[in-house]
Design a protein that fits this description.
DNA polymerase, domain 1, Beta Polymerase, domain 2, five-stranded parallel β-sheet, 13% strand, binds 2'-deoxyguanosine-5'-triphosphate, binds calcium ion, binds zinc ion, EC 2.7.7.7, DNA repair, ubl conjugation, exonuclease activity
Length: 570
């Protein structure tokens, strides 16, 4: 089992307990355990294999949790979960995840309307029956319907970071099987899309049948959806679907181009082929019946007079025109990032200390970093001005011991509903860099929200607008906001826009980044790390930046420290 599979079990228990209105401490214990497991750098299976290792040494894992982990490891299931599943209808978990609902309301729907599935919830909402329950009303009912629709629209897509858990072990397994020559992933996964519908793998092999056997026998497969001589499909236990195609060596490049897509990109290059009286498909480029290219991608593009195009750009957003004109961007690379400009510590909702975060950034070779704990508007965890001053003294102290990294004093300042900031100007004046963002009151009109944010951006000390649209992939739509207007105000007032690298944020999105770049607005790629391990999320940010056509020059935190500080003062 992967760590995330263990974590999912504990999350499910916590959800079910919450619907049952169980003791909050018990619920929290399961959630803490899930979080610990999810972010371990070592696999639980390998820890369990080690006689010496003690699970209870892990944070949030007591005796009881350790026993449950062992039970899961040994039996593949958990009695406690099975019992709960008997007691609570499984569909209520989905019901509870609809925005505006939650465990308490899911419980109410169950008690009062006997709703146990999304389908039943939808019928009840369409028949106006939710309004009759206390605490519900027409607004909530409309919101529930919208939530169900949104859920359906994105059903089945995996976040790229989740696919990244399941794909590498499968590739390793396949590469170790007999007779494999080339093996690569194509499709949206190769283009580094923020979510993937399924995984497309291409293989060349001495013997197609034996690689197909290995594929359908993959121990992590839940079911075999199709099995053929050159194409098979499986569904993994995680629910992720994988297609595997075996192709001839002389067609490998053509198949990579075709199955990498996107569909829209393929259509454009097919048009170009036609202009040249050529035919292009997954087998190659043909003049009449003669194969003129197919072995490598470069050869295929060259046959239609194009340079090789990076997969991240293959979205029909101008890449073929740019390729023709020799104007393809030289995309940013991960190694060019010199600092991380958003992260949290134990002062607010982060899990590690200032010093630990500094060590994490040094380990990644950064020259600068900003500690950006939340301001007071963030309920429960936000800091008051005095807390920031205390933290800044600690930063001075830590800084005095390191001369290879600059620790910038900062805050993630909340934008209030009226566009003012949740921290006073005298404190802002003590900061090296100021990051602002919206964390509450999302239900505004597009015009109001845009005015709110642009007003905050015009505060003379503000440097960076963080996660500008507030969306959470697969969980929350962006708040209504005019991103074009944000880009314009950013250009006019020298504000940088953040690309937040949290795999469920990736905000701004790729096409917004392209918009920012075209307007000459600098982008900052930050991780918003809440622990040092999350500093590695930068890879997801860089992937999306590449999809947004960004070059080194477009990204402020590729600058050396002095140049970056100069940008802040512009
Ligand atoms: P996904 O799986 O929804 O995240 O997105 P993709 O891009 O991986 O799409 P998928 O798995 O349906 O197909 C893989 C690639 O195969 C796709 O990017 C382009 C190519 N392809 C599939 N169907 C067609 C088609 O009808 N026409 C063309 N031109 N290409 C296609
Ligand atoms: Ca796919
Ligand atoms: Ca596919
Ligand atoms: Zn934040």
């Amino acid at each position: 089992m992967e760590n995330i599979d263990y974590a999912r079990v504990f999350e499910e228990i916590a959800d079910l307990l919450e619907i049952q209105d169980a003791n909050p401490f018990r619920i929290r214990a399961y959630r803490n355990a899930a979080r610990t497991i999810e972010t371990l750098s070592q696999s639980l299976d390998s820890i369990l294999a080690d006689e010496e290792a003690e699970l209870t040494d892990l944070p949030g894992i007591g005796k009881d949790m350790a026993a449950k982990i062992r039970e899961l490891h040994e039996t593949g299931s958990l009695q406690a979960l099975e019992n709960l599943r008997q007691e609570v209808p499984g569909g209520l978990i989905e019901v509870m995840r609809i925005p505006g609902l939650g465990p308490k309301r899911a419980r109410q729907l169950w008690d009062e309307l006997e709703i146990t599935t999304l389908a039943e919830l939808e019928v009840a909402a369409r028949e106006d029956r939710l309004e009759s329950i206390s605490g519900f009303g027409p607004t909530l009912q409309a919101r529930v319907l919208k939530g169900i629709e949104e859920l359906r629209a994105r059903a089945g897509r995996f976040k790229l970071s989740d696919a990244d858990i399941y794909v590498p072990p499968l590739l390793k397994y396949l590469r170790e099987s007999k007779g494999v020559t080339d093996l690569e992933v194509a499709g949206s996964y190769r283009r580094r899309c923020e979510t993937v519908g399924d995984i497309d793998i291409l293989v060349t092999a001495a013997e197609a049948a034996s690689i197909m056997d290995a594929f359908v026998d993959y121990p992590e497969a839940r079911e075999v959806l199709a099995r053929g001589p050159t194409k098979s499909s499986i569904r993994l236990k995680s629910g992720l679907q994988v297609d595997l195609r075996v192709v001839e060596r002389e067609s490998y490049g053509a198949a990579m181009v075709y199955f990498t897509g996107s569909k829209a990109h393929n259509i454009v290059i097919r048009g170009i082929s036609r202009e040249r009286k050529l035919k292009i498909n997954e087998y190659g480029v043909f003049r009449g019946g003669e194969l003129i290219a197919g072995k490598t991608e470069a050869e295929v593009y060259a046959a239609i007079d194009l340079p090789w195009i990076t997969p991240e750009l293959r979205e029909d957003r101008g890449e073929v025109r740019a390729a023709k004109g020799g104007k393809l961007p030289r995309l940013i690379e991960r190694g060019e990032i010199r600092g991380d400009l958003q992260m949290h510590t134990q002062y607010s909702d982060g899990k590690e200390t200032v010093e630990e975060m500094v060590e994490g950034c040094r380990a990644r070779g950064y020259e600068y970093m900003a500690i950006t704990d939340h301001g007071p508007a963030l309920a429960m965890t936000g800091l008051e001005p005095d807390d920031f001053r205390e933290q800044y003294r600690e930063i001075d102290e830590v800084q005095s011991r390191y001369d290879d990294i600059r620790i910038l004093k900062s805050a993630e300042v909340d934008i209030m509903a009226d566009g003012t900031l949740d921290l006073p100007d005298d404190l802002l004046a003590e900061m090296d860099v100021i990051v602002i963002s919206v964390h509450h009151k999302f239900n505004m009109s597009r015009g109001e929200m845009t005015r709110r944010i642009t007003r905050a951006m015009q505060h003379p000390r503000v440097n960076i607008l963080a996660h500008p649209t507030g969306r959470l992939i697969n969980r929350r739509e962006p708040y209504p906001v005019d991103v074009e207007q944000l880009v314009k105000v950013a250009a006019d007032h020298g504000v940088m826009l953040e690309l937040n690298s949290q795999p469920d944020r990736l905000d701004l999105r790729d096409f917004h980044l392209q918009m920012a770049r075209d307007a000459g607005v600098k982008v900052v790629i930050s991780t918003d790390a809440h622990r040092t391990a999350e500093l590695d999320f930068i890879a997801y940010g860089v992937d999306q930046a590449r999809r947004g056509w960004l070059e080194k020059e477009d990204v402020a935190n590729t600058c050396e420290l002095d140049a970056f500080l100069e940008l802040l003062n512009e």
